[in-house]
Design brief:
- There is one protein chain.
- This protein has a two-stranded antiparallel ribbon.
- It has one domain.
- The chain is flat, with a radius of gyration of 11 Å.
- The chain is built from two helices and two strands.
- By secondary structure, the chain is α+β, with helices and mostly antiparallel strands.
Amino acid sequence: MEFPDLARRYQVTGVPKTVVNDVIEIMGSKPEDEFIAEILRATE
């Protein structure tokens, strides 16, 4: 595992997993428009 400390901190058990500002976690592959919408929600 490349970053074991981060994997434990964010409970990564599979990829892709995206964590934005410690606010949201996006699991799995998403269509681009859904992915961007979730990121924008995290930055509000």
